[in-house]
Specification:
It is found in: Cytoplasm. One of its GO terms (molecular function) is pyroglutamyl-peptidase activity. InterPro entries: Peptidase_C15, Peptidase_C15-like, Peptidase_C15-like_sf, PGP-I_bact-type, PGPEP1_Cys_AS. This protein is of the alpha/beta class. Helix content is about 30%, strand content about 20%. It is built from six helices and nine strands, in the order βαββαββββαβαβαα. Helix 1 packs across helix 6, helix 2 packs parallel to helix 4 and helix 3 crosses helix 6. The longest helix is centred in the C-terminal third of the chain and has 17 residues. The structure holds pyroglutamic acid (PCA).
Length: about 220
């Protein structure tokens, strides 16, 4: 049976007109290769409803793999997140104008979850393709981490074999033009990076062992 891969991106937020995560993810809607097909869904940049929409999509599609994608303006590469933490601490209001400070994503949930994607192998493969990537040890404390934590909690609670994780991507060049000094990546390169992430996830049941940490 064909495997379902669910990719999610976000609507624009924080005065941006575009969100590269949705632009990249929607370009992969319907992409088929080998025994899988990709479904793309857009999530609102809103605490609560973003996680609920993701849960509904998972119930409906029963995916084998879920990769959440979000914009991290200022980051320099495709950062593959290692850890989701149980805290909402928003530096800015969400798209429903709510600013949640210091509340758990899930009451009584564990402090954190690790992604179950082969994060080292993904970073390695994206770099091999000549594109910048690194492991990240924080997905922040805003809506992306909220969705990432909710995703990992759902996977854990269900005890499914579904593998899941999150990738943050930089600004597009047209966004970076309004943020002098900020890094950017071309949309096609981001799309290629996500293709590689999907293929690598399916190719590696166990992650490769390669240093990817930081000293700070
Ligand atoms: N990035 C934000 C939320 C939506 C998005 O694309 C974040 O990193 O939390």
């Amino acid at each position: 049976m064909e495997k379902i891969i669910l990719l999610t991106g976000f609507e624009p937020f924080n005065q941006e007109k575009i969100n590269p995560s949705w632009e990249a993810v929607r370009a992969l809607q319907g992409w088929r290769e080998g025994d899988f097909v990709v479904h793309a869904r857009q999530l609102p940049c809103v605490f609560g409803s973003s996680a609920r929409m993701l849960h509904q999509a998972i119930e409906e599609l029963q995916p084998s793999v879920v990769i959440g994608v979000g914009q991290a303006g200022g980051r320099v590469d495709m950062s593959v997140e290692r850890i989701a933490i149980n805290i909402d601490d928003a530096p800015i209001a969400d798209n429903k104008k709510r600013q949640i400070v210091d509340q758990p994503v899930v009451n009584d949930g564990p402090a954190a979850y690790f992604a179950t994607l082969p994060i080292k192998a993904i970073v390695h493969a994206i770099r091999e393709a000549g594109l910048p990537s690194s492991v990240s040890h924080t997905a922040g404390t805003y809506v992306c981490n909220h969705v990432f934590y909710s995703l990992m909690h759902q996977a854990h609670e269900w005890g499914t074999t579904m593998r899941a994780g999150f990738i943050h991507i930089p600004y597009l060049p047209q966004q970076a033009a309004a943020h002098p000094g900020a890094a950017s990546m071309k949309l096609d390169d981001m799309i290629e990076g996500l293709r590689i992430a999907v293929r690598t996830t399916l190719a590696y049941d166990v992650d490769m062992r390669e240093a990817g940490g930081v000293t700070h």
